[in-house]
Amino acid sequence: MSPCLRLLRPTAKVSSRCGATRRFLSVPAAELRFGQPLHETHPHLLKAGEVTPGITALEYFERRSKLAKELPPNSIAVLAANDLKYASGAVFYKFHQDPDFRYLTGFLEQDALAIIEKTDEHEHAFHLYVRPKDARREAWEGPRSGVEAAEDVFNADITGSIDDLPKILPEIVKRSKTVYTDLPQNRISKNFASRYLAAAEPARTGGIAKVFRDNEASIRPLRPLLNELRVIKSEAEIVNMRRAGQHSGRAITDAMRQSFSYEKDLDSFLDYWFKQDLCDGPAYVPVVAGGINANTIHYVSNDMALKPDELVLVDAGASYGRVRHGTLRARGSPGLSRSRLLEKGMVVTVEPGIYVPDDEKWPKWARGIGMRIEDSVMVDEESPYVLTTEAVKEIVDIEALRGSETKL
Questions:
Q1: Which of 199-213, 242-256, 287-301 has the lowest mean pLDDT?
Q2: What is the rounded distance in angstroms from the CA atom of residue 201 to the CA atom of residue 210?
Q3: What region holds the Aminopeptidase P N-terminal domain (predicted)?
Q4: How large is the average pLDDT for residues 30-55?
Q5: Which residue among 210, 228, 246 closes a domain?
Q6: Same structural domain for residues 195 and 291?
Q7: Does residue 131 sit in the same domain as residue 175?
Q8: In the chain, what percentage of residues exceed pLDDT 90?
C-alpha cells in the first residue's frame, strides 16, 4: 500500500475571519500529480506551506485580502492566466504565467480565471476556475492540478472548470455593480477559454466583453490597484530577489574570467549558469553586445563574432521562484508616477551608462563604446540594500579577474 501524505495549506476563506485554520487532505503519495511543483512532490524546491518557492499560502491570502480592501462592496476583480503560445503549428514556447495572476494566486498553469468578489465591507470570496483533470490530455501534456486542488491546495473558496465560464461568469457579473479588470486582451489563441476571455468567440458566446455589455457592468482598470500592492515588496519577495541577484552576480563575475569568441558563446555560458542552484533560467532575453552593438540598448541578436580586446556589454539575470527578475532588472511597476517618493521595500535599478556613436566628432579611442553598470537596489530605512553586489564593478577587481582568464 502506498503511504499517504497530507497536503498542508493554511485555509482562510474570507478576510473577516480571524487567524487561519488548517485543512488536511490525505492522498496516496503515488497519486500526487500537480501542474506545478509543490512541497509534497518537490521538497527540494519548496518548504511546507509554500505554494511557490519562498511564498506561503498565507502570503497569497494576504495579498488577495489587501486587494479586496481596495474594492468597493458588490464588486469583483477579474484576472486571467496566460495561455500557451505557439511558435509554429504544434510547437509551443515555454509557458510563463501572467505576473499579476501569479502574484494573487500562486497558480502557475495556463488557461485559468481568478475572481476576487467583494460581497460586503468585510468579506470577500476567492474564485478559481481551472482546467479539469483529463487523463488522456495529461498523458501527452503533463499533469494538471485540477478543480479539487484549486480548493485544497490554492485555497479557493469557489472553484470550477474553466470550460464552464459561459455559464458561470454571467451570474457573477450580474450581481456585481463594478468590475475591475484588464480584460479582454487583444490576443488570439487556439484555446477556447482564452478566446472567450479575449472576446474572440462571437459564434458561441460573444466572449467576456459581451457578458460585460449585457449586464451593463461598470468596468474599471485593475492594474493601478495591483501596481500599488506590488510596489512594496514583502520580506519573502526580497529574499527571492536577493537570491536571484546573488546567483546572477556570480554568473556575470565568472563570465568576466573567461574569453569568448562569439556573443552566442557568452550567451550560452550565462544560460547554463542561470539554470543552476535551483534557479529557473534567464529572467529575460539577455543582451550580449560586443563592440558597437552595445550602442543598441536592447540588442538581443547575440550572433556576432567578438573581436580581440573589444568591450562586451551584458544585460542578463537569473529567475528564481518563477519571478521574472534578474540581476539587472528590478524596475518599479508601470504606471506609477516618477515623482513619487521612494519608500522602504521598493526596489529600483541604478544604472549609469555611456554610449558613444562611431562618429568622427568623438575621440577615436572612445568611438563605439557602450557601457552601463546596473544594480538592483532595495530602499531601506537608513541605507540602500544592493541585491546584486556579487557582480564586481571596481576596476581593480575586474582587472584581477581578467588576469586569470581561460579561452572558451
A1: 199-213
A2: 10
A3: 55-190
A4: 92
A5: 228
A6: no
A7: yes
A8: 71
Copy the grid coordinates of residue 233: 515588496
Task: Please give the pLDDT value at position 5.
Answer: 45
Cβ count near 55 (within 10 Å) = 24
Determine which helix (DSSP H) or strand (DSSP E) holds 5, and give its type and residue range.
Answer: strand 4-11
CA distance 313 to 292: 10
* pLDDT tens-digit series, residues 302-327: 999 999 888 999 999 999 987 654 44
Choose between 106 and 33: higher pLDDT: 106
In a domain, 358, yes or no: yes
**145 and 204 part of one domain:** yes
Shared domain for 212 and 242, answered yes or no, is no
Read off the DSSP letter of residue 309: T
Locate 400 and state its grid cell.
584581477
Average pLDDT over residues 160-173: 95
Number of domains in the chain: 2
The pTM of this model reads: 0.85
- What are the DSSP calls for 23-54, one per residue? EEEEEEGGG---SS--TTT-TTT--TTEEETT
Picking from 135, 140, 111, 159, the residue whose alpha carbon sits closest to that of residue 13 is: 159
Name the burial class of residue 382, with classes exposed (0-12), middle (13-18) and buried (19+) by CB atoms within 10 angstroms of its CB: exposed
Phi-psi region at 190: left, alpha or beta (left = phi > 0; alpha = psi -120 to 50): alpha
- Which of 75, 206, 92 has the alpha carbon at shortest distance from 140? 92
User: 49: which 3 cell numbers?
Assistant: 506551506
For residue 206, the model assigns a pLDDT of: 61
* Same-domain check for residues 270 and 180: no
Average of per-residue pLDDT across 208-213: 83
Least Cα distance to 324 among 289, 279, 294 occurs for 279
pLDDT tens digit sequence for 103-113: 999 999 999 99
**AA identity, residue 118:** K
pLDDT band at 204 (very low <50, low <70, confident <90, very high): very low
**Lowest-confidence range among 16-25, 215-224, 345-354?**
16-25
Element housing 349 (H / E): strand 347-350
Instruction: Provide the residue type at 190 as one letter.
Output: K
Beta strands in 71-118 (DSSP E): 75-80, 86-88, 91-92, 113-118
Same domain (yes/no): 102, 208: yes
Q: Which residues span the domain enclosing 304?
A: 231-407
- Note whether 105 and 124 are same-domain residues: yes
Buried residues in 261-289 as b, exposed as e (16+ CB within 10 A): ebbbbbbebbeebbeeeebbebbbebbbb
